[in-house]
Amino acid sequence: MIPYGRQSVDESDIAAVVDVLRGDWLTTGPAVARFEQDLERLSGATRCVSVTSGTAALHVAYAAAGVGPGDEVVTTPMTFVATASSALALGATVRFADVEEDTANIDPAAVDALVTDRTKVIAGVDYAGHPIEADALNEIASRTGTLLLEDAAHSIGSTYRGRPVGSLADLTTFSFFPTKNMTTAEGGAVATTDAALGERAHRFHFIGLVRDRDEMRHPDEGPWHQEVHEWGLNYRLPDVLAALGTSQLRRLAAFKARRAEIFVRYAEALGDLDGVRLPTRRDHVDPIWHLYPLRVLEGRRREVFEAMRADGIGVQVNYLPVYRHPLFEDLGLRRGLCPNAEAFYAEELSLPMHVGLTDDDVDRVADSVRRAVRG
Ligand SMILES: *Cc1c(COP(=O)(O)O)cnc(C)c1O
């Protein structure tokens, strides 16, 4: 089976991890500090906090934004469930804005219609690696006094109008799960351009501990003293995994280039095929392609999915509109809420997309698509 996504780990990655295992630090040490600096350089953020997963990054980002009971978060249904469920974890109400028909990214006009004086965060997702319309969304956020969160689990290394993902929103989250564009096994990060948000993110991921004497309520308790003012969790990424992250970041430009080649090879192989539609790229973005979201028309997605799986091709579907998970159904949300997201989901088929694919693999996948679509 050709998998739809897979990590690329080479000898330089292995050596970086082994070095840490032989050293004095396993958890929060110099490799974490270096990885966070490397992420800041790449993303254009002024502060990055590494965490244990993309889901943890979202939880930390919403907590840093001050999201709590009574607050609303406006987000996209075309994402992995964690973009929305991590806001629920903090007691917020989630509102789903429909997506743009072509990119499947959150539609700024739909967001504008849903923002109220209870909205605290607008959370978009760079679906497949294609950045959200950051300028339009930032305009809404600044006009309405809300924060923009960009879930960039698919898009580390993408740019929007020449600016890197990580510098576009108030808060950006990354995931380093093995199927993403780079990996730390499990892992993630929060990036921000706002020092206060960065400090709050750091504190939340570190149990809420206050260790700076100037900020303590009881500074004279003793030299051992540390205290907690607001609760947090332990979401610290270990040094062992941060070292893998730094090593993978060195390879990210090569990963992006190979993903771009595969994107073009699929487009050339499938461009003339009736019954499918190829993914969109807007002129002002330079995506790292995390997914290749083919659209299978005329209600034939399931049939093509099953034929390709039988052919040994690990196709996937990304994603069920989030409000159709029973978690959200049980809150009263219903199928059909976001028509563009429903239509996209009904057609979407993710072809294998990762740097381990050879040109022959890509051609084999494309041949399988053609056979399945022609029936
Ligand atoms: C993978 C993913 C997440 C969650 O990341 P994990 O590291 O798996 O917890 C969140 N949002 C999106 C869009 C994702 O693709």
Automatic annotation (TrEMBL):
Active-site residues annotated for this sequence: K180
Xref: CDD domains: AHBA_syn
Signal sequence extent: none
Keywords linked to the UniProt accession: Pyridoxal phosphate
Modified residues (N6-(pyridoxal phosphate)lysine): K180
Keyword Endoplasmic reticulum among UniProt keywords: no
GO terms, biological process: polysaccharide biosynthetic process
Pfam family, one: DegT_DnrJ_EryC1
Cofactor: pyridoxal 5'-phosphate
UniProt source species: Terracoccus luteus
Similarity section: Belongs to the DegT/DnrJ/EryC1 family.
Biological classification of the source: Bacteria, Bacillati, Actinomycetota, Actinomycetes, Micrococcales
SUPFAM superfamilies xrefs: PLP-dependent transferases
Name listed for the protein in its UniProt record: dTDP-4-amino-4,6-dideoxygalactose transaminase
An MF annotation (GO) of this entry: transaminase activity
Keyword Lipid metabolism (UniProt): no
